[in-house]
Target: Riboflavin synthase
Amino acid sequence: MFTGIVQGKAEVTAIEHREQFMTLQVKLPMEAANNLQTGASIAINGTCLTITAFKDTLVSFDVISETLRVTNLGKLQLNDVVNFERAAKFGDEIGGHLLSGHVSDQAEITAIDRDDNNCILWLKPAAAMLPYILPKGFVALNGCSLTIGEVRDQQFNIYLIPETLAVTTFGEVKVGDRINLEVDPQTQAVVDTVNRYLEANPIGSK
Model:
């Protein structure tokens, strides 16, 4: 379980590609590398990955075919920087919203509006994700818990504060980048339940 409060950025230090499989190694900041354990979970760009090996601040993960298909991890290159969050523990403050780290799909950045105090990103998700993206609802983007602003023309926007830009990789994103998207599971459950009910009981039917 994760909270969507990204703890920092990690550098990609090694990648090994095999057929529909990848081994990924990242370097965590020293302060985030305490009490690591093989088999523990860390969210990398919002994707829950299992630690397979570690030494000092270097941590390795196996990335399987479904994860490569759904997420942006397969596009990573050496020296790229990713968002990370260690798994939440009982008693931790939940400052964002509860996340599974199971990425739903990717959304493409279509526009970036910046001024002295604000950064607004517009993103276009897959059509299948749009029913779960509602104004003032929650999404996780590359592991960041964020509140949706507007939804229009099959796109939505988010507003980023300076702290988010400094701590996460959103300070370096550009138009055309594909961002991992995890929709709010409670919203998804409600929308799917209502849709199933309406399909079984069409309006006007007797």
About this structure: The mean pLDDT is 93. The radius of gyration is 18 Å. The chain is about 15% helix and 40% strand.
